[in-house]
Amino acid sequence: MHSRTVGYKVVFTDHPLYGFADAGSIHMNKVLQFTLADIDQAICVSHTSKENTILRSGISPQKVFMVPNAVDTAMFTPSPERLSCDEIVIVVISRLVYRKGADLLVEVIPEVCRLFPKVRFIVGGDGPKRVRLEEMREKFSLQDRVEMLGAVPHAQFHLQRPFAKPFWKQQVVDC
């Protein structure tokens, strides 16, 4: 808010964690409106996030831009070491929470493993949904096909499984 008086431009980057319905979200959205009243621009990571930010903050749509998340392909390159031609490895590194799709993993992994015998999963991350993933692994006897790494420091992502090809996944958003 003080930035304009000293001549600074302000760009707000939104990684929304609040909704619209509960009391806490309503309160935080009011704080957001006050705080962002004088910004120059805002950046959101998806079109849905952009729409939600405009609704939550009251910022003019002309000031809000969508810039998707990206992967530094110089850091995340497939290893020259080849996997078996038949083997498919799916790597997920994320906080294991509903918002990041951990519940979907619990439902999808057993079905993918049933349909595709050469697929295996490597799951890095920690969070409240880790227990459900561990239970799923036990229930369907997938210990040999679903490897749980636990928390992976950000600086170590590219070292974990250099043979995996990079991908980007949209998170689960309640609208």
From TrEMBL:
One of its GO terms (cellular component) is glycosylphosphatidylinositol-N-acetylglucosaminyltransferase (GPI-GnT) complex. GO terms for biological process: GPI anchor biosynthetic process. It holds the Pfam family Glyco_transf_4. InterPro entries: Glyco_trans_1 (IPR001296), Glyco_trans_4-like_N (IPR028098). Residues 86-156 form the Glycosyl transferase family domain. Gene3D superfamilies: Glycogen Phosphorylase B. Keywords: Glycosyltransferase, Transferase. GO terms for molecular function: phosphatidylinositol N-acetylglucosaminyltransferase activity. Residues 7-74 form the Glycosyltransferase subfamily 4-like N-terminal domain. Transmembrane segments: none annotated. PANTHER family: N-ACETYLGLUCOSAMINYL-PHOSPHATIDYLINOSITOL BIOSYNTHETIC PROTEIN (PTHR45871), PHOSPHATIDYLINOSITOL N-ACETYLGLUCOSAMINYLTRANSFERASE SUBUNIT A (PTHR45871:SF1). This is Glycosyltransferase subfamily 4-like N-terminal domain-containing protein. It comes from Leersia perrieri.
